[in-house]
Design goal:
This protein folds into 2 domains: 83 residues, Rna Polymerase Sigma Factor, Chain: A; 62 residues, Arc Repressor Mutant, subunit A (Orthogonal Bundle), CATH 1.10.10. It has 7 helices and no strands. It has 153 residues and is mainly α.
Amino acid sequence: MSLNNIYGEIYAEFHKLIYYHCLKKLRNHQDAEDCMHEVFVKLFEKQVDVCHTTKFWLYKASDRIVMNYIRKQFRYQSAKELEETGTWYDPFEEKFNLGDYLEPKETALLKDYILQRKTDVELSKELCITPEAVRKRVSRLKAKVRNLHESED
């Protein structure tokens, strides 16, 4: 059996599962279909070993692709809004008013991590620290914010 036939069978067997997995996260049929197709393109490009772990690989790849898609959409919408209005609506700042409690660097880190959905690796490169240190800082900041809001209630 040729490699193309094997990939064709994998597509036929799993494309609906991956599509619905993406749709559940994106809630948009066209976006889900785009992400699903990208998953199978990556499968073909990377020449992933076709074995019993294929389904797992497809789900993990679709999760990463969907997260990257969401991150890109958020950045695009924010940049477009800034360009059109000259301001950037910041629901994070409005909801939590963190400027009163956190240093500007801390607020920026939380925004990058939560709103822009930057990964630990991306943030570690920006901050010139290890990904583990980024995770620890974010964890501490989340706890700090949680404690602040619990004390206000």
